[in-house]
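Async update (no meeting this week)

Hi team, since we skipped the sync, here's where things stand on the single-chain job. The sequence we agreed to prioritize is pasted below, unchanged from the tracker. I ran it this morning and attached the output directly underneath so nobody has to dig for it. Comments welcome in thread, and please keep replies under the output.
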Amino acid sequence: MRVLILVDAMFAIHERALIERVVVGLANEGISARVVLPKDRRLDPKGFDLLTEPIWYADRGLAFTRSIRANQVATQVLKENSAKDTSSFEGVIDIVHVFGGGAWAMGRELARIMGAGMVFEVWRAGLIGNAKGLHLDDTDRAMFCVPERSFESELIEAGMGKRVHLAQWGAQVPTETNKIFREQKDISIVLVSSGRQKDRCVAAFEGIADTIEHRDDVMLFANLEVVERAGLWAKVQERKLENKFTVIDRSEDRRDLLLRCDVLVYPDTLHEERTLLLDMMGTGMAIIAGNDKFITPLQESPGVSIVDRPARAQWAQKLSECLNSPEKTREAGLASRAYITKNRRSGMYIESILDAYQSLSDQHEPASP
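Output:
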């Protein structure tokens, strides 16, 4: 089986880890996967561990040029596969798996040109309404992979029932637990957010600041997106926390650093799946999060501390409880790690998407006489 993994710019920036895991996981199953990335989007090919060089595609252009741009990708794939029949794209690729809503239409076009099955990753609830907009017909062998059952039910209600497949994202759980709150080591808190829910982010930051401003043993990190979108740097200066605060630019490149922190503060309730959240839970970190009822691990893991009302005082209370009861917090972190180990390992996701691929391939098989 041969798979093309088509990725839009935003997904490539924020979920590089997932793309790399899919490529390696499929390779371990004997499946060749080639990644197709948008060009001219400041993506560094050296930053990706994809086993082979990526193919680059033009993701910007008028709608009527989409077929031309898809043909360019198909032609490059054909050449690189040394196909004997260069007059047809049929049979060169079996599956086109699309990550990121910005690439859905291109993925549909590319799959049609190559006679391949198409898989669309519904990684956030906001994409559910886009499913009908693809205008799939009966000849399209298509599947919508969803990481959460709540997404699954909404897609079924939208009329996509037969084309919905549950494939829950997973984490790479390290062999050793992250031992949080070590003696003679400053406590490290990381605020991670897209920054798009500004009020929630500001409330979370203010709650953190209220808790740590008079402590000398705490460092605070935050990803660049939340700092810029929520205007946090001005508040850092206002609270005179410059010496305790560090901005993490290109946080996907520094995931290793974030995974060594003690506490994650995660205010987002955007109904989006993030492998960074799952990875952090898998290390044994303390997790304080907004109440996103769409994201199952936050709801089911007994170790996650949920902030029901996203007010400054609520974040401060949860963080104070966390810091003032280190042994209890360690136990909570281990409970989250145990939940991820049992329910959300990355290998489970690979098995799920393989089932989707096989289902689409079976649809392509000619019926027995």
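Quick observations from my side:
The radius of gyration is 22 Å.
The mean pLDDT is 93.
Reply here if anything looks off.
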